[in-house]
Amino acid sequence: MDEQLLSDLRRITLFDGLGDNEYQWIADRVIVKTYKKTNEVISKNDDDNDVIFVLAGQLKVVVYSPNGREVVIDEIEEGDYVGELACIMDTARTSSVIASERCKLAFMKGYDFRELSKNSHVSSKLLSDMAEMLKKSTLRITDLSLLDAPHRVCAEIYRLAEESGVNNGRAVIYPMPTHAEIANRIGTTRETVTRILSDLQKKDVFLKEGDMLIISDINILKSMIDAVRA
Description:
The protein is of the alpha+beta class.
């Protein structure tokens, strides 16, 4: 029995509520692999349907523009999973997945995942996660369609702040993504992000210290975004 693997699998949010026998069933059906930063984990148009669980590290889901520019669609954190849509729909991959850092991943074959999804705990969590994914995708599409570049930057900073945790209106983002990474997420250029962040700092929207970005009042940032979204 691989106790380390079982311990790692217990951190996968999709498996919350499962018993020891079910965790062992999962452990018997996954293959663990490691990937270095920038390694491709999934290629767009691949016809495999493995579902991938992130035991350690972070992945990014990307597509590429005709001129080769990378656009980040989503980020998959430790404890999350990716690849379930191709598995459930039995279709080719619609995007690529790249390791953002060194990763430890568990791969499960599609037929095993479909069997696992019959479990009531897993199916309920899977539906909840897919609904949340749809909500996030709708908001991102709306922002890309309606917001100009400065407000898209504000929206991305606000999202990062919420993920980092807000305490009495204050948030600290650390480590702060590079300007190029932000640009890839919101569909603009690195130079544009640099200029906008500089302007926002001059307006005291936040304070940047090295790799740390400090927001003293996140409501100011939120009001700037809501004024345009409304």
